[in-house]
Design a protein that fits this description.
single chain; 6-stranded antiparallel β-sheet; 5-stranded antiparallel β-sheet; about 325 residues; 20 strands; 8 helices
Length: about 325
Amino acid sequence: RPAIIRSTLVLPQPDTPQQRDIAMAFQQHALYPHLTVEQNMGFALKVSGVHRREIARRVGALATALGLSDVLDRRPAHISGGQQQRVAMARAIIRDPRLFLMDEPLSNLDAKLRTEARATIMSIHRRLRSTTVYVTHDQLEAMSMADRVLVMRSGVVVQRGAPMDVYRAPVDLFVGSFFGSPPMSAVLGRFESTGSGATLLRFGSHALPIPADAFLTAQGRRLDSMELVVGIRPEAIHVDPDGPLELSVDSVEQLGHEWLVRLVVDAPAIQVSEDGGTLGVAEHPFSTVAMLLRADRPPSLWEPIRADVDVTGVHLFDLADGRALAHGVVDARRSA
C-alpha cells in the first residue's frame, strides 16, 4: 500500500506594523494628551521593554537636542504648537528606526519655527543616517533638505532626481512652475527669423535676440513654426540699460536683501490646471514676469525698465501638453 505524503508549503507571513521598524511623524501631532512630554517621548521605548534608566537617558539627550528640556513635565495642552511638533518628531526619532516617514511635519508651524525645525531635522538625519521619506508641498523644504526629490502629480511620479537637476531641467511646465520660489513665469511665445538671418524669441511685442539656431530645433522638432510656452526663471532677468526689452513695473515685494519685481509684458500667461494635466492660454492679453533685483532702493510702480534675459535660464515647453522642449541654449544645442 503506497504511502500518502502530504506536504504543506508555509509562506512567510507579512510583518505586522510593529515589526517593520518604521517611525512616522504625522502632520497632526497625535500626542497622548494624558501623558507628559517625557512620557510621550519615551512611550515607544517603554512598550518595547527598554529599561526605565535607559529611557530616561535617551529622552534627556534628545530633549536637550530639540530644546524640550524645560517642558518635559508638562502635558501637550500646556506647550506651544511648535513644541508639540518637536515632541511628535522626538517620539519617532527616539526609536532610531531603519526608516522615517514624515507627513508634512512642519506645516502647522510659523515661518521662524519652520526654519529652526528644518535645521533640527537635517542635523538629526546627518547623525542617524536613517533613510527618510519626507512629504511636503513646500518646494523650499524640498530644495534645502532633500538628497533626491520625487515630484508627484495625481499620485504618479512625474520627475525624480537631485533637487538642482529638477530645478534646472523640469520635464514639463507643471514641474517648472511648481519647483522654485519665486516660481517660473510662463507666457505664450514663438520664434521669428529676420531677413538678416537673426533669430528672435518673441512674446507679445517683446523680442529677445537668440544666438543663431540655438533653439530652432529641439528633440527632433522644428520650433520656428509653432507657438510654444516660454518659461523664464526670475534670476534669468536682469536690468541692462542697453537690453532689448523695455518693460514697466507692475508690483514690488521686498525679500530681505532682494526685491521681487513683477514686470508687465503684452503676452498672455499660460495657466496650468490644478491637476497639472492641461494648459490654458489666459484670456487677458497682458501678464507679468518676475525678476529678482538687488538694489538699494526699489523701482517705482510703472517705472520703465530696460532689461535683458540670460537665455540659459529660458525654458521652452510644448503648448499642447506642457512637455519640455529645451532648457537653455546649451540643452537645446545638445538635443538638436
